[in-house]
Amino acid sequence: MQETLARRMETFRRECVERGLAVTHQRAVIYEALARSHDHPTPEAVYETVREKIPSISLATVYKNIRAFEEAGLLRQVTPLHESVRLDANLSDHHHLVCLRCKSVTDLPADSIEPVRVKGRLPTRFRVERFNVEVLGLCARCASSQ
Ligand SMILES: [Zn+2]
Ligand SMILES: [Zn+2]
To answer: Looking at the domain that runs over 92-144, which CATH code has it been given?
Structure first.
């Protein structure tokens, strides 16, 4: 886990430098909160975590930086269509286990699923960038409390 964090922070610093994004203390704290997370937090949850270190920070600032990270490719949204935004600092190819009850989102390595390929014809000019499988079900905790 620690190794993952170190690697994510290294990527963050490198990408910021390459994109001319200043690595401010504020940005580093926000990104570290994301890099430490494995539960695909909402921006509001990230804000709560960051506030423990920077009590004066505003939610608007956190939103603004999250957007900048997304534009820099340092962050993805799990599924932009969900009613609440869930953020993902895991930039490797992977899928998700989504709990239908508590809405927890857990990473599933890409090799846990057979490679996804297009079989039929896609609408003209649709350019595929990547496949993201969402495995819908109940997490262990929700399944056992049924
Ligand atoms: Zn659950
Ligand atoms: Zn993920």
So the answer is: 3.30.1490
What single-letter amino acid sits at 130?
R
Q: Is 90 a residue whose pLDDT tops 90? A: yes
pTM of the shown model: 0.74
The domain ranges of the chain are 2-77, 92-144
Q: How many residues does the chain have?
A: 146
Residue 126 near residue 84, CB atoms below 8 Å? no
User: Which residues lie at CB < 5 A from ion ligand 2?
Assistant: 88, 90, 107
State the pLDDT at residue 133: 92
Please give the Cα distance from 71 to 13 (Å, whole number).
15
CATH fold label, 2-77: Arc Repressor Mutant, subunit A (1.10.10)
CA of 49 to the centre of ligand 1 (A): 22
The residue written with tokens 């809405």 in the block is: 103
Ramachandran region, residue 21 (left: φ > 0; alpha: ψ -120 to 50; beta: rest): beta
